[in-house]
Amino acid sequence: VRVRLLGTAAGGGFPQWNCACPNCDGVRRGTVSAVPRRECCVAVSADGHHWFLINAPPDVRVQVESFRPLGPAGAVRGSGIAGVLLTGADLDQVLGLLALREGPRLAIHATAAVRHSLEVGLSLPSALDCFAGADWQVPPETLAPLLVRDGSRSGLAYAALPLPGRPPRYAADRTAAMPGDSIAYLIVDGTTGGRLVVAPAISALSGTTLAWFGDCDALLVDGAFWDDLELPRLGIGKLRATDMGHVAVGGPDGTLAELAPLPVPRKIYVHVNNTNPMLLDDSPERRAVERGGMTVGQDGCEFEM
Amino acid sequence: VRVRLLGTAAGGGFPQWNCACPNCDGVRRGTVSAVPRRECCVAVSADGHHWFLINAPPDVRVQVESFRPLGPAGAVRGSGIAGVLLTGADLDQVLGLLALREGPRLAIHATAAVRHSLEVGLSLPSALDCFAGADWQVPPETLAPLLVRDGSRSGLAYAALPLPGRPPRYAADRTAAMPGDSIAYLIVDGTTGGRLVVAPAISALSGTTLAWFGDCDALLVDGAFWDDLELPRLGIGKLRATDMGHVAVGGPDGTLAELAPLPVPRKIYVHVNNTNPMLLDDSPERRAVERGGMTVGQDGCEFEM
What we know:
With 305 residues, chain A is of the alpha/beta class. Chain A has helices at residues 22-29, 60-65, 91-94, 96-99, 112-122, 124-129, 207-214, 230-233, 255-259, 284-291; strands at 2-7, 41-45, 51-54, 81-85, 106-109, 134-137, 144-147, 153-163, 182-189, 195-199, 218-222, 266-270, 295-296, 302-304. The mean pLDDT of chain A is 96.
């Protein structure tokens, strides 16, 4: 499986349009050692021709344009996008579906809970039906072939790994929490056997989750906040990381301490919030990540398994 | 009034993510003389500090980042955006409102028809209320002060110029056509008296419309398609320009023939579709535009009146 990180920042991107925290201000002025990042989106493919996007952020148009295999080939209109796999219904995971409306009928893989939130909170499936339209598929809980829209095999198999979650903030008053609000994906290459786990939002790490995360060749995992009080400490509102559905990276209960021991060759943080100090190449937090055998994802990073 | 063109392309941008028409293919390969363009968005300000966006395209985040005065100044979070003026409810005009959710409460100027389409078709006002929230104001039909959110004057006055229109495609089966589906804005600087008209979507040019367009110092006007059959001729679907709510630029009944005689110092085409041959710097169509005393807008272009 070929994996391309199209975007690696949390919602708002890095720098975030309205943020002047030390990271954002520094990267704008060029006074810190860090690179800008688009909102989180990952593309995967077995054959290099049929690509699946994991989530569809608002600026997906720019992200698609950044990676030639996702663009048109041959015909006057076309795309290498064979489908979109949603891990949740948050705005930064789904708004790009509407930006893809100009293409052919979309294949969208989403749990019933996610599709419900999208319909109740944004009328998104109905709106899409007025343009390209979409075929909605519920991802299987045990490995099954991931098909291309014409029914042929993509060379990949996939499964949804259920995570604790809740409905997105825009639908929270209309939709009760349901199983499937948040999932991760296991993606397996039918030829090489390479196993990828993609989990851009994690609100808690259970033993079951850790067992899944430990059983793969590459793990792309939620690196939103370094610590639970990151935003209040910077004077940005009152919400803790956990209030926003993210376990922090640092600290004794953070994901770094839990994930560092896992025998996984590639462990990469994605969905990194603009305030996270590990975005700085020379920060103590970045050194801690690297000492733990993990890396901080960057847009354009690509690998194969 | 200071005017900045943040984006000058129609929905999909230029190049469009899934398009390999001669323009898109050429600009990607660097084989034509043309520059990429983001989706249409214009920023205006009297004082250089309080800026009003005309429409909010999906990639508004990148557009804000491209123009420093729109970013934060002083506080850890902030923005130079004092309000958003909508001309319609099409997806490429409104999706960016949700990308601005992370900021302070938004001031959105929209007709009752536009707000209705957004609520019925996308639940957008309700979704925004779960984040920053918004104050919705109906733009006046005769010149009135354009206020900053705290109630102080921005130095600009504005009025809505009603245009023939219809509800956006995503709401067309749920919403009947209403007055106010599509408008242009007249914006007047209280100090200099400079008059700007912004009309990014025009489905027909009446005598009344031409009279408004002729009575200003700068006109930003719909340049979506060169001719009515542009898309079918390229093998891209069956829709004519008029089916999509745009009068063509070229031809005896086109906007160029109608607007060229107007005694307006600056007449600039914006909202240009990726297929339009006037995007090429050396095309006969570009020469025709320039012979008519008009120009084709480019991202980053700025002027003051």
